[in-house]
Amino acid sequence: MSFNNLDTLYRQVIMDHYKNPRNRGTIEDEGSITVEMNNPTCGDRIDLQMKVEDGIVQDAKFEGEGCSISMASASMMTQTVTGKPVEDALKMSEIFSEMMLGKDIDEKEFNLDDMGDVQALQGVAKFPARIKCATLAWKAMEKGVDEEQ
Q: Which of 22, 81, 102, 106 could tie 125 with a disulfide, CB 3.0–4.6 Å?
């Protein structure tokens, strides 16, 4: 597949998550982790909720508003971390941050296929002003886990 076709496919994946977000909503459980974060430079805002039991992210949902990158990233993040051990979710967040900084990921250490649709956001690294948009939901997840522990 040529670079242009791959770039077009990635854009389509991002727009699909933006227009049809996965896990948008709230968790009706008093024991869930709730984190509110925003990006004041562009106005992106996210309210993230996660239900963690026995070290596993049982559910993750979000509400918010923002650009297509921010909302698509939140959709992808909630979809990717649900069902995963907290340690794996945090590792994915670390890998995602490295990806946003344009760093090469050692495929022997971490299989990018485990990130699912999140890989579609790799191109954001070319636009430094958009990196905070892409990482907002991931930073909210990290903050929620830190506060819970």
A: 102
Helix ranges, the chain (H): 3-19, 68-81, 86-100, 128-148
Q: Return the domain boundaries, the chain.
A: 3-148
| 118: its two tokens | 């999140």
Asked whether 145 and 90 are in contact (CB, 8 A), the reply is yes
pLDDT in tens, the chain (149 residues): 555 666 787 889 999 999 999 999 999 988 899 999 999 888 999 999 999 999 999 999 999 999 999 999 999 999 999 999 999 999 999 999 999 998 988 888 888 888 999 999 999 999 999 999 999 999 999 999 988 87
Q: Which amino acid is at 36?
A: E
* Beta-strand relationship, 44-53 and 33-39: antiparallel
pTM of the model: 0.92
The answer as to CATH 3.30.2130.10 being correct for domain 3-148 is no
- The answer to whether 120 and 13 have CB atoms below 8 angstroms apart is yes
Amino acid in position 68: S
